[in-house]
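Worked Example 4.2. Read the sequence first, then its structure tokens.
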Amino acid sequence: MEERKYLTTWRKYIPVIRLHLKRSLNEDQTFKLNITDFESAGDRGKSGYTFSLAMENGKVTNNISGSAVARDLYEALKTDDAIKELIQDKNIKISVGKTFMLSIKTTTVSSYK
């Protein structure tokens, strides 16, 4: 299994993702990814590139072990200092569907646990 083949692709998107993460504090965000960027990195065939990545306080809370695309996105996110700061004290869900729309939903983590 090839490791980190989508990391370079996600790093190209980091500035856009950072902007949408900031905006997602006020309202849910969506933007279209370029499918060619991902197909040139690795062919996912029928399994496609769809995934859901849930984070709380910057830590993944769902199982993304079966999705190289999601794992590499998380790797790219946690290496960006501005994003690391943005995702603290937040619940964030990032997902990509069949139409290659990336959506970001952010809620603040309650201090009452």
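Now turn to a second chain, presented in exactly the same format:
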Amino acid sequence: MKFRTFAASLSGLCAAGLFLSADALAFDADTAQALAKKEGCTKCHAVDKKKEAKSLTEISKSLKGKSDAEAKLLHHLTSAEMVKFEDGKEEEHKVLKTKDKAEIKNLTDWILSLGK
């Protein structure tokens, strides 16, 4: 009888752990969108249609399936690399002002989720 109670308790804890770990891995889309707006990303990028630059969904699709997708996106958001527009104009990509790694991770996870 004690074994059944122990096994049931252990099963419950495992199920709760899986549920909580899935939540811990999830991103907060509203927070990511607010950060994108605050950082000025939405001046050039829309979520699902082209503005002055590719949509965030297009960017996500271009990175889909690449093992270094997150690293590439992170580099793009934090390195001020040169970007070229369709009209031939080039400029440095704006760097995220926030240094909060959790905020940046949430933003990159959200962007990468858009192309699925």
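Notes for the reader: Confidence is low (pLDDT under 50) at residues 15-23. The radius of gyration is 20 Å.
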